[in-house]
Specification:
Blueprint (H helix, E strand, L loop, with lengths): L15 E4 L5 E4 L16 E2 H14 L1 H4 L5 E5 L2 E4 L4 E2 L2 H5 L1 E2 L2 E3 L5 E8 L9 E4 L9 E2 L7 E7 L12 E4 L7 E4 H5 L8 E5 L12 H5 L9 E4 L12 E4 L11 E3 L5 E7 L8 H5 L5 E5 L3 E4 L2 E4 L2 E4 L5 H11 L39 E5 L1 E4 L9 E4 L2 E2 L15 E8 L7 E6 L29 E3 L4 E7 L15 E9 L3 E10 L4 E6 L11
Parallel strand pairs: 2-6, 3-7, 5-8, 9-15, 17-18, 17-27, 23-25, 24-26, 28-34
Antiparallel strand pairs: 1-2, 4-5, 8-9, 9-12, 10-11, 10-13, 13-14, 16-23, 18-19, 19-20, 21-22, 28-31, 29-30, 29-32, 32-33
């Protein structure tokens, strides 16, 4: 059956009942043409159709005209029960669609109509009416695509829940969606009328692990954790940020501030105003406030950035990190591990603000885009190039104009040695420094430059196995001189093992790719002798 929009489909004493004998009631019954089946978007009856049927009944029936009319309509989606008339029961209210109304006892109902669809009619959407991370979750009456009433005021107007309504869709293995009605529609508060909200989902191809696997003892899942930090992150999910410390200002406990060098601090005590200079921040206090280094400060490349939610990655791949975080957002209990001891408070996973960019933008199978203020700590080094961070703002300005921040690009150098070289020595040189100083410090000269890894330590090492990895800081390494960072690097790989393999020199070119395989295939040395 479909949603009823035509009053001719409402038959008296089948789908609709009018009782004038006792308390005056209008009742809707799921019978005949009227369905109460999920999804709500394809069942029930519009408030306008019920009103129109009542108009027809009062026009055609003297018995009804002996009584005042029950419904006042202001728009097709907004009305009011009047003249002591009430809906007969909760089932009647649950059958109303595209409609919000006021009842004679002062209670208010809004209608929530979903613009969009979800993958299955059995998918459950839910809501929360305070915006708090430890609020009460309420499932919608119907599963699937949403269209139903939600009570926003009680009898006499109490409780009053008109300031907030969060609507969530989080069903595995689909993309999540969320909408906060008041802020999303840019209205002052909820009214007793119908609201259309954009909410939809499709299958997420990057969710493949079962919940039981992620929740179990398998690594890295078991060692991963999430920590919420207090200070700049709005408790109701509002984005936060830091401000540059200035003299003679009043701050609140927990405020995030930055000094002129770009380091971040957090106010721990004091009533202000601030005094001295920002050099005092490193010392921990001025005469107005006491500070600490902000626990959400992280160094990416050579710049510090500010975060407020930290995922302990435990060397996870980006796929593992994405799936673990997505799983946490469906947990019904507290997901705040509080590793820093900030006592941020309880955060029910179901109500947590999304940890990743919305829908397909969060993870495409290669690049992981974290939500604002989320830091993934200790990911798999081989995939760190593919993380895009969105730190909190400083003085209202987002790093990199809000396009995200990534680690300086590194390249994994995968050395594949023949077995006769194991135990020998390998040294990696730059072939030349033409893109930098261009001073002739080339291979085959006394000034040949040994390549450094990301520590930095010279790549001059004992060949301990046939398969070895070293990391080259593609965006940072300036050994060849100014301007050489971020440019292709020609290498000469020298390997030698006295008595095992003949000395060999292999050419390699490091480009901006995640991995460069360098095969060092040496012939057995049949001529070395040291009797």
């Amino acid at each position: 059956m479909a949603k009823i929009t035509d009053p001719d489909q409402l038959n008296l004493n089948t789908e609709i009942y009018i009782d004038t004998a006792g308390p005056k009631t209008v009742q809707l019954v799921a019978a005949g043409n009227l369905s109460a089946a999920s999804p709500g978007a394809t069942s029930g009856v519009t408030g306008q159709a019920v009103y129109s049927k009542c108009v027809e009944l009062w026009e055609s029936t003297l018995a009804f005209r002996r009584h005042s009319f029950p419904i006042k309509m202001y728009t097709p989606g907004e009305g009011e029960m009047i003249n002591t008339w009430i809906w007969d029961d909760a089932t009647t209210r649950e059958l109303l669609r595209d409609f919000g109304w006021i009842e004679v006892d002062g209670s208010w109902y809004m209608g929530v109509f979903q613009l969009g669809d979800v993958p299955a009619d059995t998918d459950q959407l839910y809501n929360e009416n305070t915006g708090d991370f430890d609020g009460t979750v309420a499932d919608f009456i119907y599963t699937g695509e949403l269209n139903e009433p939600v009570q926003i005021k009680g009898t006499g107007g109490t409780p009053n829940d008109t300031s907030h309504l969060s609507v969530f869709y989080r069903t595995r293995p689909n993309f999540y969606d969320y909408y906060e009605v008041v802020s999303g529609l840019q209205i002052a508060s909820l009214e007793p009328k119908a609201y259309s909200i954009p909410l939809s989902s499709t299958a997420d191809p990057n969710i493949v692990e079962l919940d039981a696997t992620i929740d179990g003892a398998t690594e890295p899942w078991q060692s991963m954790a999430l920590d919420y930090l207090t200070g700049e992150y709005g408790y109701k999910g509002a984005a936060g940020g830091a401000v540059t410390w200035t003299i003679a200002q009043t701050y609140a406990i927990g405020d995030a501030i930055a000094d002129s060098s770009g380091r971040y601090f957090r106010i721990t005590a004091g009533t202000g105003p601030s005094t001295g200079t920002d050099a005092d921040l490193a010392g921990g206090s001025d005469s107005g406030y006491t500070y600490e280094v902000h626990p959400g400060e992280y160094l990416i490349g050579t710049t510090y950035y500010l975060f407020s939610r930290v995922i302990a990655g435990a060397s996870c791949t980006l796929s593992e990190g994405y799936q673990w975080g997505s799983r946490q957002e469906r947990v019904v209990t507290d997901i705040n591990g509080d590793a820093n001891g900030d006592a941020f408070g309880t955060v029910y996973g179901q109500l947590a603000v999304h940890l990743f960019a919305d829908k397909g933008a969060g993870f495409d199978g290669t690049v992981l885009k974290l939500a604002e203020g989320v830091f993934l700590e200790s990911p798999s080094a081989s995939e760190a190039n593919n993380i895009l961070f969105f730190p909190h703002s400083l003085d209202g300005t987002y790093p990199n104009s809000g396009n995200g921040v990534s680690y300086p690009f590194t390249v994994n150098l995968n050395f594949l040695f023949t077995s006769n070289l194991v135990g020998g020595q390998c040294t990696v040189f730059f072939e030349n420094n033409d893109t930098g100083d261009d001073d002739g410090s080339d291979f085959d000269t006394d000034n040949a430059i040994v390549v450094e890894d990301d520590v930095p330590v010279d790549m001059d090492f004992v060949i301990s196995s046939a398969d070895m990895d070293k990391t080259f800081d593609f965006d940072v390494n300036v050994q060849r001189g100014t301007g050489s960072d971020g440019t292709n690097a020609p290498l000469k790989v020298v390997a030698i093992y006295a008595g095992g393999a003949e000395p060999i020199v292999v050419d390699a070119l490091v480009t901006r790719v995640d991995n460069v395989a360098i095969r060092v295939n040496a012939s057995d040395d049949r001529n070395y002798s040291n009797p």
